[in-house]
Description:
By secondary structure, the protein is an alpha/beta fold.
Amino acid sequence: MANIEEVNKDNIPKHVAIIMDGNGRWAKQNGKLRIFGHKSGVKAVQSTIEGAARIGIKYITLYAFSTENWNRPKFEVNALMELLVDTIKKEVNTLNKNKIRLQAIGDMDSLPKKAREKLQNAIEETSQNDHMTLVLALSYSAKREIINAIKDISNKISRGEIREDDINENLIDSSLMTAGMPNPELMIRTSGEHRISNFLLWQLAY
């Protein structure tokens, strides 16, 4: 592995998107419960985030939980939500130490109350950090995001705030959950699978 000092600082992406995948399958292959894999995945994410902040990446978006993940066994979903709460609670100090701001995209209302409250508290406690932004995609669906953007634009046309001729890529960009962020220049899927899986479909066009 290259040292941080060896990284070409002139060729660093501003935004990296990461699909956290394969942890559960890895655990099963090693005769352990899937949640053991998810916990191991958290450790890998921690070192990845800190390393990214050190080399100057400005945005990392982690696909942590998709809308489809709600279809997993209840035990696994509950364990993932508990892991989410515990991780967020433990990592606030580290985020502040590295001046990393936490944000989230997805259907936050579908998260358990405890997870939603811990997440919101962490977002508020890190809101003044400006070195890097860590975006958690939770209960996220890119198709749903695009549908909601279309509805928002349609409502603005109905209210007379914009005209149909005003619809362009910039308007759609500003109507998405990632409004104000640069589009990802690099997408990594940790399992080795080659699928986007309903993740940032508009933003990953190129």
